[in-house]
Amino acid sequence: MAPVARKFRFSPIEAAYALTVGVLAALGFGAGSTVLIALAALVTFPSSALAVPAYYLAYGLLALVPGANPSISTGSGTCSAAGACTVTVTGQLASWFVVASALIGILALLAAAVANVALLRRLTARRPPRMAPPGGGV
């Protein structure tokens, strides 16, 4: 007989933790804020110690796709006497690459938060219950 898989349900505190990590990561990757991304990685430690290198590995592999990450960027601009300027830039990151790498980063940090919840549950399940002191003392 196959073992019955238990459903993984978040408690309200666990859900708030994962939601906080997701919001920090989304704001960080959306705004390009290293501080917010680092904060999300910090609150997901120790699992982020695996998630962050995995993100950079995925980023590097995604950058190998032709057209994703050009090695040369050039640009030019002209302005008229009236002050209207036109700027042309080539060689920027492809928009699909920016979106995909941000989504991968957000998902990596969310996965780290879920892994931390599972790890904490596993550690607390192994701990024997605390015994009351004899005589019902303080």
**Percent of residues in beta strands?**
5-15%
The overall pLDDT, averaged over residues, is 86
The neighbouring-strand order within the major sheet is 1-2
Total number of helices: 4
Which secondary-structure class do the elements indicate?
mainly alpha
Shape: elongated
Beginning-to-end CA distance, first to last residue: 48 Å
Major beta-sheet overview: 2 strands, antiparallel
- Which radius of gyration do the C-alpha atoms yield? 23 Å
Quaternary structure of the protein: single chain
Helix content: 55-70%
**Uncertain spans:** none
Structure, explained:
The chain is mostly helical and 138 residues long. Helices cover 57% and strands 9% of the residues. It is built from 4 helices and 2 strands. A two-stranded antiparallel ribbon has the order 1-2. It is elongated, with a radius of gyration of 23 Å. The model has no long low-confidence stretch (mean pLDDT 86).
Q: Strands, helices and their partners?
A:
Layout: H1 12-31, H2 34-43, H3 48-63, E1 74-79, E2 85-90, H4 95-126
Helix pairs in contact: 1-2, 1-4, 3-4
For the structure shown, list the relevant keywords:
single chain, about 140 residues, mainly alpha, two-stranded antiparallel sheet, 4 helices, elongated
In short:
Helix content is 57%, strand content 9%. It is mostly helical.
